[in-house]
Amino acid sequence: MSSTAKLGVGRRLFIGGAASAVTALALRARAQDVDGSVDVERESSRTVRRNISSFRPPDWREYFNDTENGAILADTRARILHFWSEDLSVYRLYPTSVPSTEDLTRRGRTRIVRKVEGPSWSPTPEMLKRNPEWPHYVAPGPDNPMGSHALYLSWRYYRIHGTHDTRKIGRRASSGCIGLYNEHIAELFSLTKLGTQVLLV
Length: 201
What we know:
Strand content: 15-25%
Strand order of the largest sheet: 3-2-1-10-5-6-7-9
Number of helices: 4
Largest sheet: 8 strands, mixed
Helix content: 25-40%
Order of helices and strands: HHEEEEEHEEEEHE
Radius of gyration: 22 Å
Number of strands: 10
Distance between the termini: 57 Å
Shape: globular
């Protein structure tokens, strides 16, 4: 190899190494940001929102016999929620948080049985066993884990709800529920009705 070629290879390796070092430092700085800054949360939000653009709407007929009362498909692997209105004039796609472990994940068919704006929250008996220091009741507000709106399902303790902690969206971060950004759950809340079909896969 000529000295010129060696110089070119050396320069490329140096530039590549420098870029990797800068990236590593940036990632380390973000990881060290205690409790996550607004900037970190915004970046996480942007990443999730960009990623959902690559998802194509599935054919609802693969999952439902009809769209009576509307239909929700919550994909726990892709961490995405799809909504179709009854007349199919409205389709929405939302990024979600999903249960943190497989044993907390429930799949199958259910429906919306209750809708609450400004929900309160109480941990389940199993949650209190795992976390006895948790409060037994949290009133509606910024400290409430269910965010601004909640859609109660026919399964006890299971909800589709908002979250004030936007870092959870796109992650395995819940104790069984499906979480959305507050602005998204507010929109979904307005689109759904009692009896809306829900399928978790």
